[in-house]
Amino acid sequence: MKQLGPAHVKNLKPSLLLRNLPSTTMSVPKAVAATIRLTVPAGGARPAPPVGPALGQYRLNLMAFCKDFNARTQKYKAETPMAVTITAYKDNTFEFTVKSPPVSWYLKKAAGVESGSSRPGHVTASSLSVRHVHEIAKAKQSDPYLQNMPLESISKSIIGTANSMGIKIVKDLD
Amino acid sequence: TVFGDGSDLIGQICNENPEKKIECTNILRADPTVLGAKNLLQLSEAILNLAVNKTEKAEDFLKGLANTTDVPAIANCALYYENAVERFMNSLQKLKCQDLKVANYLAAIAGDEPSSCETELSAAHIVNHAISAVNHQTSLLSYIAFVATGKLS
């Protein structure tokens, strides 16, 4: 077959040129149907409320979510509340991210209180020891963005949060 | 109507503080769910949803910065924003189950977190206008949510 040179290419009709071009595939972002936020206990996702109704209305694969969520959160103590944000796409697929509990949850858990003081800085709802702060700091240090952060620095932040919640930090509990 | 003069829903919230009125009105008018609210309860829910969305984005932004810069003060800010998101989310939950006083309180103390972040940066002599901007916005949203939920109590 005779090879076509530049001169011959110029004489071809545009439609013929297009047929010889390699196809190009461009990725198109998937259309988002909804963003769903839930709090689910670590290792405890079940195809039942609140997970079932929340995902079911968008016809998402409940079992796939539960399996993946439970695998991702197995390192946490059972029943630890995990905040999960699910992005549901219009093609019925989904992605999700899981957050570890925030410092305020750990503080409330350790202090045995439902919520902080109604007047932070004025009314002390409870007290915690420095040891508690240290333990919470170690737990938070497992978060990816905190892994290189000194425990002392994380502890400082935790104390700040405790103060804003009306939880007093003492050297030792009586 | 949702927007217009002081008699509308957004006006009822934003007119509480003349110094914040313009910023308050601008951020609320930009959200279609807020604009679609028919009453104060719907408006409060929409405002808290808006606060959750924006604060989560700020949290992700700060976590990204913390990973790339390895600066303790910025990582601390990300920690504070985790709490802020939780408080806005909890406020929304309390609002939905009609625990209005707690919802109001949680909306208010959510604003403590960006303040703590700003203090952290200042103590470390860090000037980052992007972080300061999100701190300002989050504080504004906390104030707005506090006013809105307060009108329901």
UniProtKB/TrEMBL annotation, chain A:
GO molecular function annotation: large ribosomal subunit rRNA binding; structural constituent of ribosome
UniProt domain Large ribosomal subunit protein uL11 C-terminal: residue ranges: 99-169
Pfam families, per the entry: Ribosomal_L11, Ribosomal_L11_N
Chain ranges passing through the membrane: none
Domain Large ribosomal subunit protein uL11 N-terminal: 36-94
GO biological process: translation
Keywords from the UniProt entry: Ribonucleoprotein, Ribosomal protein
GO CC annotations, alphabetized: large ribosomal subunit
Family: Belongs to the universal ribosomal protein uL11 family.
Protein name: Large ribosomal subunit protein uL11m
